[in-house]
Write a structure and sequence with these properties.
single chain, alpha+beta, five-stranded antiparallel beta sheet, 2 helices, 5 strands, globular, binds guanosine-5'-monophosphate, binds zinc ion, HIT family hydrolase, diadenosine tetraphosphate hydrolase, hydrolase
Length: about 110
Amino acid sequence: MDCLFCKIVAGAIPSHKVYEDENVYAFLDIYPCAEGHTIVLPKKHFGKFTDMSEEDAATLFASVNRIAKTVSETLGLEGMNIGINNGEIAGQTVPHVHVHIIPRRAGDGEGN
Ligand code: 5GP
Ligand code: ZN
């Protein structure tokens, strides 16, 4: 097992867990873009989102939907960015599919 995120799912590398079910594992990003920046992974290894079947992608996003609602309610958010960097050229740095949930707050884009 030579994948950073597979090691996180297995508990071989520690992480701050946000949510877990039979299909996905969610944890806080180590370099958060905002407080509460959460990463959601399928437990099964896929390199890129476009390597997944429609069924596996649907299962992943059912959990993303549930987790995003919980993050929103817990942190009292009005909105968030939910997205995937699909492939190295698109900014994917860890080659195990993952969805970013990035809380947005008033004024956090100023100066960028
Ligand atoms: P990507 O750029 O591939 O879409 O996102 C990878 C994300 O994983 C980055 O936001 C990065 O901060 C996060 N990350 C990389 N290594 C670790 C780690 O060991 N632990 C945690 N919690 N996050 C990580
Ligand atoms: Zn992996």
